[in-house]
Design brief:
Elements: E1 8-15, E2 18-26, E3 33-38, E4 41-46, E5 57-62, E6 66-70, H1 75-81, H2 87-98, E7 109-115, E8 120-126, E9 131-137, E10 142-147, E11 155-158, H3 164-172, E12 179-187, E13 192-198
Antiparallel strand pairs: 1-2, 1-10, 2-12, 3-4, 4-5, 5-6, 6-7, 7-8, 8-9, 10-11, 12-13
Helix pairs in contact: 1-2
The structure holds the ligand NC(=O)c1ncn([C@@H]2O[C@H](COP(=O)(O)O)[C@@H](O)[C@H]2O)c1NC=O.
Length: 202
């Protein structure tokens, strides 16, 4: 996978007994972006002029029981659905309703939900010809991830880090092409903590 372009990536895992999620934004076309924390949400903000509707969006939403991470405007809808239904159903319903992005690449929508209790998480994907949602049982030291391009369903990697900032750093340093920024979300029991790292200091 070294040097492969995977575009946007969502991952979940367990480190030192703490459930975590991460987001890695790689981009060929829109490298000038930053992540901004607003309360219990994180936004991706594109800093160049464009009419592309897919490059600025709410990327993380923290709830009492769950953290939601996604590559687009589906983040708050998944969070809202979690108020009424299971993570599996919330992901299936919202990804099915919104579908893939109508851009030149038919870019998939991807999402992750990690639960505070139970060491469980869910990953979801909707592309032009495919919709899937998978539940994963979290394992210490391991991360499960999917991505928009060149990843086959759910793949795994080893991740060991000391805090949310270190998680973001390690996700940013994974050897995939065109890194822009990464976000780490770690469950510290009383609350999720958010770390952000970018290639540029924007
Ligand atoms: N979520 C994102 O940050 C994001 N960034 C770019 N896209 C879409 O993917 C297309 C390809 O972008 P790129 O060449 O940077 O991988 C863009 O034209 C845009 O429609 C995105 N949409 C989904 O991943």
């Amino acid at each position: 996978m070294k040097g492969v372009y995977v575009g946007r990536m969502v991952g979940v895992g367990l480190n030192d007994g703490k459930p975590f999620a991460f987001y890695r934004l790689s981009s060929r076309s829109f490298p000038n972006r930053k992540a901004v924390i607003k309360g219990d949400e994180v936004y991706i903000v594109n800093l160049t002029e464009t009419d592309n509707p897919y490059v600025s969006y709410p990327v993380v939403k923290l709830l009492r029981e769950y953290a939601v991470v996604s590559n687009g405007s589906h983040t708050p809808f998944i969070a809202q659905a979690l108020g009424e239904e299971s993570p599996k159903k919330a992901l299936i319903h919202v990804l099915d309703a919104m579908g893939y992005e109508r851009d030149d690449y038919n870019t998939p929508r991807i999402a992750a939900v990690v639960q505070k209790e139970g060491n469980k998480a869910w990953l979801g994907f909707v592309g032009k010809d495919e919709l899937w949602v998978k539940e994963v049982k979290l394992e210490e030291g391991k991360a499960f991830f999917t991505a928009t391009y060149n990843v086959d369903g759910v793949e795994t990697l080893s991740l060991d880090f000391k805090d949310e900032n270190d998680l973001a750093e390690r996700a940013l340093n994974l050897s995939f092409a065109h890194p822009v920024l990464a976000i780490g979300v770690v469950d510290f029991g009383d609350k999720f903590k958010i770390g952000i790292r970018g290639v540029k200091n924007l």
